[in-house]
Structure formats: C-alpha cells, structure tokens
Structure prediction request, 408 residues.
Amino acid sequence: MPVRIIEDKCKGCTLCIGACPFGALEMVNRVAVMNENCTHCGACIDSCNFDAIIEEKIETEEKDLSAYKGVWVFAEQRQGELMPVAAELLGEGRKIANEIGVELSAVLLGNKVDGLAKDLIAYGADKVYVANDRLLETFTTDGYTKVMTEMINEYKPEIVLVGATHIGRDLAPRVAARVGTGLTADCTTLEVDAEDKKLLQTRPAFGGNIMATIICPNHRPQMSTVRPGVMEKAERNDSNTGEVINFNVSLDEEELRTKVLEIIKEAKGNVNIQEADFIVSGGRGVGTKDGFQLLEKLAKKLNGVVGASRAAVDQGWIDHDFQVGQTGKTVRPQIYIACGISGAIQHLAGMQDADYIIAINKNPDAPIFKVADYGIVGDLNDVIPNIIEALDNVDDITKAFAEAAATN
Ligand code: FAD
Prediction:
C-alpha cells in the first residue's frame, strides 16, 4: 500500500528518518519528504506521533471472478521453434485443468507460427490461440505485452502459466500489471485447492530456507512463472485433436520502443545442461578452474555435460550458464554426479529430481549424501580418475548404467 506524508501535520521531529530502514526519508524545509528508495514498508507510519504519515488506500475495481475460465499456457517460441518449457507447462497445465474441470489452452505469438499449433495440440492443448503478425516475429516487451494483455482481456482465462525464461520473466510481470492481477514467480509446485479450486503456487522464499504457498484470491487470472526443467514434459500424442483460434492483432510499429536488428547466438558450444542425460557437476571442492578439466573428461566419457554449484560459478571457474540450483538451472538428467558439492538446499532445488544422484565428497557427513542414491567418500581427484579408468573397459556406457540401475 503506498505511503503518503501529510505536509500540514508534519512537525519536523525527524523520528521517521531514523525509523526508515531504507534511507527513504529526508527533511526539506523542516518537513519530511519521501524519495525513490521508499518500499512502502510502513515503518515510518508507526514512528510518527502526529499521524502525519498515512497508508493511502487504493480503490480497486471489483472483478467478477466467475467470468474467468480455463488454464492458459504461454507457448514460447523462438525463430519458429517451440521452447521445451511449453510442453512442460502443458503437462502441468493439463493436471490443473482436469482438477478444476476446465479447458487447457496454449497461447502462441509470433509471425507465421500457425504450424506450431498442431504440436501444442499434440502436447495436450484443447485450444490454441494464435496471434500472427510481422511485428511479433521476434520478442519485444511492448509488442508481446500488448497482444497478450488484449487476449487475456478478451478471453478471460482463470490461470496463466508462463515459462521463467528470459522472455517469460520480462513478459509475465508486465502483463500481470496491465491486467491488474498478481504474479508468483519461479514456482516449483502448482496445486489446486480441493475446496475452492484456487491455484496454490509454491516457491522458495527467504533464500530458499522456506517454501511459501501463495494464492491470488481477489484477482484474475492467477499468474505463475515456472522455470524450465521443473515440470515434467507432457507426452506427445499426434492423434490429439483441438481447435485453433486466430487472434486479430492490431499493432503499430510506433508502439514498439525497441527494434531487434539482429539475433546473434552466444557461442558457448551450444551446451544446454537442461537437455543432458548425464551431468558431472563440480562445486567448491573442485578447488580451481583447471580442476574442472577432470570433470570435463568424465562428462565426455559419459556423453554428458559439466554443471556447477554457485560456489564454483562465483569463483569464476565456470560460466553461470552451467549453474544448477535455485538461482541457476533446474535439471532432470538420468544421472547427476555431484563432485565436491556439499548439498545446500539451494543446490538441491535444481537437481533433486535427477533419476540417479551420485555424490563424491571427502566429508562423510556432507548433506549431499542424504539425497544421493550412491555416495563415494573420498577425494574427487582420486575417485574421478578411477571412474574414468573403469569406464574405459565398458563398451556401451548408457547400457551399463541402465543394467546397473535395473539391478538396484
Ligand atoms: P561448499 O558448500 O563449500 O561445499 C564444498 C564441498 O566440497 C564440501 O562438502 C567439501 O567436503 C567438499 N570437498 C572439498 N574438497 C574436496 C575434494 N578434494 N574432494 C571431494 N570433496 C571435496 N547454490 C547453488 O549451487 N545453486 C544455486 O542456484 C544457488 N542459489 C542460491 C540462492 C540464494 C538466495 C542463496 C542464499 C544461496 C544460493 N546458493 C546456490 C548457494 C548455496 O547456499 C551454497 O553456498 C552453495 O551451493 C555451496 O556450493 P558448494 O557445495 O560447491 O560449496
């Protein structure tokens, strides 16, 4: 709630200045004045003995919540290719839609992207709303926000799910503000309240130390972003049928404040740890940037990729693109080998859904062993070369792992 100073009542006592934790108040001509640091926390209100600081009530228009129906998934595409998170959200959206007893729809924005509608139907969408326009060819905050807002206002979905990709993180909060609703970012679990069918949106809070479940009781749609890799992908079924609805786009070039001149893909060896089946991840225990070469060697042997904890990324040993965890990526490989990683909750948040977790750590009490299917207590500099040597004698590594997994 916004906070306001009533100038006539302010006595210039300066008590509020000391009470503000953000340095958001200063005295100008013996009257307290708020600056841009104000977070509207309200601490100054309690400190004022003269009722000179008040909470300003905002009158909000009452919405008819019953007019909002259905679950929507923003189907992100880039250069005509669907992002994997679209199928993941359709998988989760299907469960939610079935529980509430409503339709699941996908929303597709782009230029000449009609062809993707059949893929979205195959992943379970009952309907696909398609907005095709030359000005939607590449993502722009202004263009996509305007069109998405208009679509929500016209069709009134009760739930909108967006992938927490760079695009989704830009788009979703802006759309939420435009349609006058809230947004829960980076959800890790979505459920439906059995009694009132509201969406229960769970996400880590306070540095990942607690999980907070957030509801949006008075506004619609209920909007969440979910990071790629968190939800399980919907199964593709090409015999699914669905309806395609073309949305009439009215967009002017002048409405877009940014122009995409060229798209240059970052040359990082095109490694996407979220799509890897084998991940060999290194933490502070790897010790140095060069230490990662040993992990690379093992990853190569397994046809996998290297990942990392935040500690290793913070040390500058590896790029943030490879970070696994709450502020990195969420991965679901078949096998995750954690080397010299202690197993902090923020790291576990990104890898605990791996099929098999193998931990190598010289501390037998390291928390990573609590989530590991297999634990090796030892120095990774001794253990990893031994594993590589052992793998030299295996012809088909994937088959060997599958056989080992089946016997355990
Ligand atoms: P450490 O905790 O220092 O553990 C190093 C481990 O290596 C120890 O267990 C040690 O016994 C072992 N070791 C040392 N030498 C060897 C050796 N030679 N051989 C074998 N084992 C050895 N962390 C993430 O990883 N991802 C995130 O996304 C993330 N997000 C965060 C978000 C927030 C808001 C906060 C507050 C923290 C976040 N963190 C994240 C940081 C997290 O809390 C931990 O600090 C971090 O995961 C620790 O990394 P680590 O396990 O590599 O290092």
